[in-house]
Design a protein that fits this description.
By secondary structure, the protein is of the alpha+beta class. 29% of the residues lie in helices and 30% in strands. The strands form 5 sheets. It has a 4-stranded antiparallel sheet with strand order 3-2-5-6, with no helix packed on it. The protein has a 4-stranded mixed sheet with strand order 8-9-10-12. It has a 3-stranded mixed sheet with strand order 4-1-7, with no helix packed on it.
Length: 312
Amino acid sequence: MIVKGNISGLRKGKFYLQKQIDSLVVSVDSVDVNGNNEFIMTDVVNSPEMYYLAMDKTDKKIPFFGEKDTVYIKSSLDKFNFKYFAGELAWYLMKDCDVDYIGKFSGFWKNITNPGTNEINSNYGALLFGDQLQWAKESLERDVNTRQAIAFLNQPKYQFEGNKDFVCTMYLNFWIRDNKLNMKVQMRSNDIFYGLTFDAPFFGFVHQHMVLWLQDTYPGLELGTYHHLADNIHYYEQHFELSSKIIKEMRYGTPATEITMNLKEPMFVLNKGMMELTDLGAEYISEVNNIVSREDSKMKDYEELLKKYLLD
């Protein structure tokens, strides 16, 4: 078997061709990469079996089926857009519906402002961080078996002609079972590439906050399951080529990078329907502002910031 490939995003390092022998994963070939993403490795294959492409610069492994032929693998080490998520989270914590701040992280929002304004509707902090989450929290505090712990986002006031930002998320529903807090996010519409990618970690952030708040009432309460549902989940024409590429490469099982969110303390609390930033939340916003104001800031700066406050 000849394994040829191109792994974008790794300029220097070592690739290992690995396979499982009994209970061990062993390396059968390797190649040094220095300024060239392309590689060739070989092994003897008598019948199809599982192989892995491993890299010394990351814990990521790419599994694929080895065959008596040439196998082509094309993948990427390109990472999650930590800059945008860090900025969006700060924007939500500030409950700022003006697009000037979020415009430092993405030019998308300026195209969907409300007619004659510089504001949008889908700042989820402005929609959630107040009486909506307060209602859900207090419902659960009053009754561990409640079916009323719902926080709404889309509202009737957004039903007007010319609205380019018709809020995609309908509601969050929280419930406790077996001492675990579960959450369902119901979307009317969700773009896989631009929406789901950042919606899921944000709502995970909300889910973990609710657990932390409720632990005063229910000591030992644990994080349950996050359910994400969309009536229409989609992607647009600019992503047709990328989606086709992903589908074609699924044969080789290219995995997503695993990132774990583990919030230790709240960034904000609720008091009589009003949101109050904690010291941690205020510090987070300040650090985001410091990074984005620097001309030499890099994606890695935002990744390290999120690791400091949110991620394992």
